[in-house]
């Protein structure tokens, strides 16, 4: 007999080979009807799989969050069946689950699919789902599979069969007349997919990502538990489209990209103003705790060999050499892809004492990393970017306190930008790693405790979790993911504990007892890439930046040319008060001017007419508000002084005032 443990903790004996299906039926008819799969010791499996050893069993129903992956994968199979039914001669390749959906890559000799084909395929899918064929699994031999696919003319599948390592089972999933080579698992029948799915778009993709091979058509789909979930997702996409930072960047005149600089940003005046405000903000947050440093952009190859980058990371790096033919010095340099080796040189310069630790070095470091051209996406994925990077050199005893200090800073920064929902995940030791198990045990123990404290201290605001095996090869790390205004998640901050790099570079400090010791190095970034963080901010705010970040805070404009002198005086007063103001005295209709500045997302427009000039007042129009407000210039200045104060400055002032009053 085998022993099966149920979620309520009860343990029951069963004959070896009993299926999840049989157990579900034994529990209740209704459970068996709702069951779509099972989880054995937490791993999803077919409900019809025999259970051959003691295990923890969970019956997975369609409502289970884990079923979503199955719904999507099953939908990919059904899409492939639909395509082959509608377009005979089309070859199938692979069809995995991706974030929010699935895709399948097809080879079609007649030419690629077009968006016009999608409604037809979608309708066929609904037809197949209505037939509700069962998914059944068979294990085939290699020859059996190759023969089958050969008779069907499926050349790509034969290649896939050949790529499966010897000794590994070759699984075939059948649904009615159609079958596919697949690792599974799948739900019990295609009907379980439901109708909350939609085919989204087509794209080209090379077979195996190899540009020397066939060009395939990739059809993307999305699938959800319910129609409401699907509708919400489609609405989110629509909203994301409106907020696309590339579009807003153009409309607000913030930045551009061009062919000669793939993946590097041309910041225009307004975009650079926001960038610099962000840097200034981060600088204020570091004050007192960190030393800001600056390490060279271009460093000799040998340094990257010592750091290990040359060996493991070279394909992501840009090499640099003098360009002159006659140049005597033909040393090979690299543009830095990371700031860590530079900071280690600064740490190593001179003898370090334990008294100097923790030593926190920060840099707004510009790094370059090679990204494939297909991977680049506006500011979100670039080849050159600025990291708000820092490295903390500390003792092992100081590690936990430093992790907490970094965590407090990260959460406080995110909150200042309106990101209240944050997830912190601990990534633990990967299979390939350096350092002894004892070292990892210790670090993971310390960081697990820190994680528990983060959750407890946040009063439920911060969600936490573990990513098993996802740590860096040199140490465990925390990953910070924030949720934006339309519910999308962005992983930004990281805290990585490193036992490796200081040792590689021979960095040490002299401890109390006069012994040389290797410091722990903590890598941390809050925004991550500041370019990407700005992209996230643009989309999060939909271009409606808070006043302190707005590139242009006020435009002063006129209803009539009679008010020109007064408007110019108002503009000069604002400039004197440190406000980023512009003046628009064009002889255009006021509605036209307001519309234009609103389109550029200027948060405040001060309209001046004859009456305002006489009364030393302005008519304040706020972006997004229909109600202009007549205000004295003095009051408007006071309002601006308050609203243009960055949140950290306002907070520090309030704290100081409270202390003074004590
Ligand atoms: Zn599959
Ligand atoms: Zn680093």
TrEMBL record:
Pfam families: HGTP_anticodon (PF03129), TGS (PF02824), tRNA-synt_2b (PF00587), tRNA_SAD (PF07973). Zn(2+) binds at residues 340, 391, 523. GO terms for cellular component: cytosol. It catalyses: tRNA(Thr) + L-threonine + ATP = L-threonyl-tRNA(Thr) + AMP + diphosphate + H(+). SUPFAM superfamilies: Class II aaRS ABD-related (SSF52954), Class II aaRS and biotin synthetases (SSF55681), TGS-like (SSF81271), ThrRS/AlaRS common domain (SSF55186). Keywords: Aminoacyl-tRNA synthetase, ATP-binding, Cytoplasm, Ligase, Metal-binding, Nucleotide-binding, Protein biosynthesis, RNA-binding, tRNA-binding, Zinc. GO terms for biological process: threonyl-tRNA aminoacylation. Its cofactor is Zn(2+). Residues 274-546 form the Aminoacyl-transfer RNA synthetases class-II family profile domain. Its main location: cytoplasm. Its EC number is 6.1.1.3. The keyword Endoplasmic reticulum does not apply. GO terms for molecular function: ATP binding; metal ion binding; threonine-tRNA ligase activity; tRNA binding. Residues 1-61 form the TGS domain. Belongs to the class-II aminoacyl-tRNA synthetase family. PANTHER family: THREONINE--TRNA LIGASE, CHLOROPLASTIC_MITOCHONDRIAL 2 (PTHR11451:SF44), THREONINE-TRNA LIGASE (PTHR11451). This is Threonine--tRNA ligase. It comes from Oharaeibacter diazotrophicus.
């Amino acid at each position: 007999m085998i022993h099966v443990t149920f979620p309520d903790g009860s343990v029951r004996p069963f004959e070896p080979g009993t299926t999840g299906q049989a157990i579900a039926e034994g529990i209740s008819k209704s459970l068996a009807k709702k069951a779509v799969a099972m989880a054995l010791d937490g791993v999803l499996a077919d409900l019809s799989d025999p259970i051959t050893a003691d295990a923890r069993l969970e019956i997975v129903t369609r409502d289970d969050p884990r079923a979503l992956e199955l719904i999507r994968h099953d939908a990919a199979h059904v899409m492939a069946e639909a395509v082959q039914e509608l377009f005979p001669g089309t070859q199938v390749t692979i069809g995995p689950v991706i974030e929010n959906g699935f895709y399948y890559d097809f080879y079609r000799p007649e030419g690629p699919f077009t968006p016009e084909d999608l409604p037809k395929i979608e309708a066929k899918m609904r037809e197949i789902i209505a037939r509700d064929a069962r998914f059944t699994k068979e294990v085939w031999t290699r020859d059996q599979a190759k023969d089958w696919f050969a008779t069907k003319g499926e050349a790509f599948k034969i290649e896939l069969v050949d790529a499966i390592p010897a000794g590994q089972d070759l699984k075939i999933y059948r649904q009615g007349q159609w079958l596919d080579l697949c690792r599974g698992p799948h739900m019990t029948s295609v009907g379980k997919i439901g109708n909350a799915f939609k085919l989204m778009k087509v794209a080209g993709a090379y077979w195996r990502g190899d540009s020397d091979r066939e060009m395939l058509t990739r059809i993307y789909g999305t699938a959800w538990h319910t129609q409401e979930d699907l509708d919400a997702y489609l609405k989110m996409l629509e909203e994301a489209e409106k907020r696309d930072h590339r579009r807003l960047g153009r409309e607000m005149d913030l930045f551009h990209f061009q062919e000669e600089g793939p993946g590097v940003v041309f910041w225009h005046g307004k975009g650079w103003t926001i960038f610099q405000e962000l840097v200034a903000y981060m600088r204020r947050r570091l004050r007192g705790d960190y030393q800001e440093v600056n390490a060279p952009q271009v460093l000799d190859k040998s340094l990257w060999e010592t750091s290990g980058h040359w060996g493991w990371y070279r394909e992501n790096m840009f090499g640099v050499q003098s360009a002159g033919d006659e140049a005597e010095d033909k040393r090979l340099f690299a543009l830095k892809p990371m700031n860590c080796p530079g900071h280690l040189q600064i740490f190593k310069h001179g003898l370090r004492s334990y008294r100097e630790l923790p030593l926190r070095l920060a840099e707004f470091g510009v790094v370059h990393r090679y990204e494939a051209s297909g991977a680049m996406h506006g500011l979100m994925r670039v080849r050159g970017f600025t990291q708000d990077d820092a490295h903390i050199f500390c003792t092992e005893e100081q590690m936990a306190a430093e992790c907490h200090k970094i965590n407090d800073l990260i959460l406080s920064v995110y909150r200042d930008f309106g990101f209240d929902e944050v997830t912190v995940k601990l990534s633990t030791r990967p299979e390939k790693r350096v350092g002894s198990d004892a070292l990892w045990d210790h670090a993971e123990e310390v960081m697990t405790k820190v994680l528990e404290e983060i959750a407890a201290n946040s009063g439920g605001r911060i969600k936490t979790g573990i990513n098993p095996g996802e740590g860096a090869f040199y140490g465990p790390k925390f990953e910070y993911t924030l949720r934006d205004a339309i519910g999308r998640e962005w992983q930004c901050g990281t805290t990585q504990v490193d036992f490796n790099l200081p040792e590689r570079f021979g960095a040490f400090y002299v401890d109390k007892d006069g012994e040389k010791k290797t410091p722990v190095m903590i890598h941390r970034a809050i925004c991550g890439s500041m370019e990407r963080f700005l992209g996230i901010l643009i989309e999060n705010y939909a271009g409606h930046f808070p006043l302190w970040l707005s590139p242009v805070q006020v435009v002063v404009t006129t209803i009539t040319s009679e008010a020109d002198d007064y408007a110019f005086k108002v503009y000069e007063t604002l400039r004197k008060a440190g406000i980023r103001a512009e003046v628009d005295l064009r002889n255009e209709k006021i509605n036209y001017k307001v519309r234009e500045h609103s389109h550029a997302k200027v948060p405040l427009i001060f309209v001046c007419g004859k009456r305002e000039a006489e009364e030393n007042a302005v008519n304040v129009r706020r972006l997004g508000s229909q109600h202009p407000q007549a205000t004295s210039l003095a009051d408007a200045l006071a309002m601006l002084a308050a609203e243009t104060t960055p949140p950290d400055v306002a907070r520090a002032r309030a704290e100081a005032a409270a202390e003074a009053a004590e």
